[in-house]
Amino acid sequence: MFQLLPWTFAVDTVHFWVHYGLVFLGFLLGGVTILVQLSKPAPYGKFDQGNSESWGVTINQRLGHILSDATPGVLLFLLVFFLYGTERQYTNYVFLGLWQAHYIHRGIIHPLVMRYSKAQVPLGITLGGLFPNCIFSFLCADWISSARYPDQYYYDPRFIIGLLLFVFGYVTNKWADLKLRSLRRQKGTDGAGRAQTTFESWGVTINQRLGHILSDATPGVLLFLLVFFLYGTERQYTNYVFLGLWQAHYIHRGIIHPLVMRYSKAQVPLGITLGGLFPNCIFSFLCADWISSARYPDQYYYDPRFIIGLLLFVFGYVTNKWADLKLRSLRRQKGSNGYYIPSGGLFELVACPNYFGELVEWLGWAVGTWSLSGLAWMLFGCATFVPRAAHTRKWYCEQFMEYPRGRKALIPFVY
Ligand SMILES: NC(=O)c1ccc[n+]([C@@H]2O[C@H](COP(=O)([O-])OP(=O)(O)OC[C@H]3O[C@@H](n4cnc5c(N)ncnc54)[C@H](OP(=O)(O)O)[C@@H]3O)[C@@H](O)[C@H]2O)c1
């Protein structure tokens, strides 16, 4: 049954009037803001006509944005959520996560990485942003930490559509900001005037180890655990076995691997990191949701799907780790961070045994969990590994005359 108001907001009288008083103020502020901004844009950036002194003393622009956005959007929001709010369902945490994802970027990362044309911003502009940000951060934090949504709200079209809109908007917003930033890098207004390389066209770069931790460990380890323990309901041994398998993969892939590998480049474009983060979030959520909400029979450990799935996963896991370590040891042996022809074991048969191993892991996952989410994740793995392995094999053949042409790309003797 579709409920028009799905939540309950059971707070005391003072809390009620603080909340709805601020809602009224919020609407009023929106009305005043649109009238003022329509008549004249706030004088910062391209609209700074040189008379911005009338807004008062200036402060460092990066600091200004951190003050006006991160202080209310990150700090105040967290304080209100944890000290003032009372509701602790998964919906409250999902909304908290969305808000923080936006404001950690908008209030901290964005001001630190953008290339502003001016180093200073009028303090009046900062305060002019700080004031409404405080009101709305308080209001939204108050709501999402005091409203109770029904247990099954994740099936509600409002929740699903809202989440999809948010993610789409988030990605579009970040992409556009990064594109604007990369314009100045391309045109050389940072002083270099260099031609843009494909690498740079992905936008700002970050430390490669941090990039992989962000794109793999955050969803694969953290989000997965949160969904499993806060959102899921089933607690049989099978649910824990699947949790263990997934975590074994992602603790290695998302934490150990990025910390120990010898990368040839210290930096990675942030676009690559976000491009990995997005699908990893979707699939981590999906698989965690499945394995923490699906109930398998008590005797499932006798089931051939469970046994074969487990064996495939373990075989794939060992192969993947062995191949990655083999690649790592190549550079240690040769003493430089160049590229060499790997040999031995499965490297004699395929160019990318690490991808082959990971693919077998997810095949095992799909068979063992016998789920559509597992199948979707395995197919997504194929979509990544099949083309990348083909490119890698082609790259080896072009780089090394002596590269054995009989080696396949991904699957021994087949492809
Ligand atoms: N689940 C997914 O969707 C997904 C997607 C991609 C990767 N992965 C997994 O992540 C891991 C790493 O993947 P990747 O794409 O980064 O693998 P990769 O391209 O094979 O690189 C792995 C590491 O080995 C180095 N390396 C590669 N070829 C080399 C050679 N011929 N000589 C010397 N060093 C070499 C690379 O150096 P450089 O960094 O300098 O190139 C990098 O440090 C794998 O386990 C893979 O299965 C998963």
Automatic annotation (TrEMBL):
PROSITE patterns per record: S5A_REDUCTASE (PS50244)
Membrane-spanning parts: 16-36, 66-84, 121-139, 159-176, 213-231, 268-288, 300-318, 362-386
Keywords of this entry: Membrane, Transmembrane, Transmembrane helix
Residue ranges occupied by any 3-oxo-5-alpha-steroid 4-dehydrogenase C-terminal domain in the UniProt entry: 121-189, 268-415
Predominant location: membrane
GO cellular component, one term: membrane
Pfam family, one: Steroid_dh
GO MF term set: oxidoreductase activity, acting on the CH-CH group of donors
Subcellular locations according to the entry: Membrane
GO biological process: lipid metabolic process
Membrane protein topology class: Multi-pass membrane protein
Family that this chain belongs to: Belongs to the steroid 5-alpha reductase family.
This protein's name: Steroid 5-alpha-reductase DET2-like
Gene: LOC109465868
